[in-house]
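Technical note accompanying the year-one report. For the benefit of new consortium partners, we illustrate the data format agreed upon in the data management plan: each record pairs a sequence with a C-alpha cell string. No post-processing was applied to the example shown here.
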Amino acid sequence: MQLNYNGIQDKAAWEKTGVKLPKHDWKAMCAETAENPVWVHFGAGNIFRIFIAGLQQRLLDAGEAKAGIIAVETFDSEVVEKIYIPHDSMTLAVSLLADGGIDKAVVASIAKGVVSADPDGWHELKTIFRKPSLQMISFTITEKGYALRDMKGELTPAAQADIVNGPEAPKHAMGAVAALLWERFRHGRTPIAVVSMDNCSHNGEKLRAGVTEIARAWLEKKFVTQEYIDWLEDETKVSFPWSMIDKITPRPAEAVEKQLTALGIEDMAPIVTARHTYIAPFVNAEAPQYLVVEDRFPNGRPALEKAGVYMTDRETVNKTERMKVTTCLNPLHTALAVYGCLLGYEKICDEMKDEELVKLINRIGYVEGLPVVTDPGILSPKAFIDEVVTQRFPNPFMPDTPQRIATDTSQKIPIRFGETIKSYVADSERDPASLTAIPLAIAGWLRYLMGVDDNGNPMPVSPDPMLDMLQKALDGVTLGNPASAEGKLDAILSNPNLFGLDLTAIGLDSKVKSYFAELIAGPGAVRVTLKKYLD
C-alpha cells in the first residue's frame, strides 16, 4: 500500500490495517483550493501536518469546508520535494496512546506544498494572495522564525538582506509575508487574518511586529507606500490574532516506522534533510491537543470551532497561553530537557521515573508557577498540569527526547521562565529571591551549554541560534573548577533578550551563579546539587 491518492483507492486494504481514510473527495478539494484558496499555512512540518491539517480534515469530512490548505515551506525545500510531492501532500497521522495502542489516519486536507524560495513557488504564492477568497494565513515556523534581531539587538543577515533588496524575492519568513501582503494590497486590498499558531507567548504580537518592521523599513526605502502601511496596521483589514497551541510532536520514531511497514504500508522511512529537518511520510504524536484562537477574522474563516478549536477573545487566549507556556507545560519540558541531557537520558518518559527530576518540575509548576497564573476559565490550570505530569510526560509510547526539546532553548527561556520571574517582581508580596527551582533550571541550562555531561564526558549540544555566542561567553569555565566561572556569567544573566529582564537588576543572578558553581564542582555534581535543593 502506498500513501498517495492512487494508493488509498484500495480502501479495503487500508481499512484492514485499522487506518482511517478521508471521507471527502481529494481531487475536488484540490480543484476548489486552486480556484478559491481559503487558507495558506507557513511551516510545513510535523505539528502542522498532524494537528492543523487534521482540523481542516475534520471540516472537509463533515462537509463544513470545500477547500484545503496550501502549505508553504520557507526553510527547507527537501520537505516538499521528498515528503509532500511523492505522497500527494498526504500524511499518515499516528496518535500514540498511553496504553500502547496507536490510532492511525490518512490526513488529506493539504492541497499542495509550495517552496517560497523557488521562483515558480513564489509566483504561485503571489497569485494566491491576490485572491479575495483567501481568509487566513497561519504559521508554525517556531519562535526563531519571527526573530529579525540577534542577541545584541542587531538585524540578522537574512533580515538585513530582505530590507535592502525589497519585496521582490525575500528570504526571511517575515519578509515573505510582508511582500505577499503588499501583493494583496496592490490587487484589491481584501482583508485577511494573519495567525501565528506557534508555541510562544503573545505569538500574534511577535508576528505583527516582525512583518511591520520589514514593511516600515521598505517604506523608508520607497519600496512600498504609506497607504500600504496604513492598511497593514489597520486590524479591521489585516488582523494578527493571538493563539495558544499545545500538542507534543516528537521526531518520527523507528518503532512506529516498523509497525507501519509490518502492516504493508510502503516507503515510510524517515529522512534527515541537509538542513537537519527530521521528517517522514508519517507523523507520530500524543493524542491530547489544544488550540485556542482569538476570534478576529476580517474576511471570514473556516468553522474551526466545529473541529475542536476554542474560539474566544484575546484576554482568554493570553491567559490560556500564559498558563501553558509559562507554567503548566513548557517550563517543565525545558527543565527536563537540559537536565535530562546532562544525566544521560534519551527519553522524556524515562526522566519521569527520576525522583529528583520529578521534584524539580513539580516545584517549577505547582509551587513556583501556579500561584501567579490567572485561571483562563476555559481550561483549569491545575487539571492541565496534572495531565502533563501524570499522563503526558510519563507516556512510555511517546518517543520524545530531551535532546529535541533542548533545541533553541535561548529563544524559549525569556517566556518559559522570564514571565514567571516578572510576575514575582510585579507582585509586592512576592520576592524573586524566594524562587529555587526556576533559577536552578536556568543554572542547569548554562551547565548544559558546556557540552559536558554529569560524568564528565563530552556531550552534544542541540542547535541554537545563540549557541556560539553563549559558549564563547563561557569559554574557560571547566568542570571541577568552580572558580573558573568567576565573572563569566555576568553578561549572560544581565541580558534582557535572554531572560525577558535583567536578572542582575532584580538580584536573582547571585542565586543562579551559586547553583552553577555547585553544578560544575566535578563529576556527579549535577545529581548532588539536585538532591541538595529538592529534598
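Partners are asked to follow this layout when depositing records. The chain has a mean pLDDT of 96.
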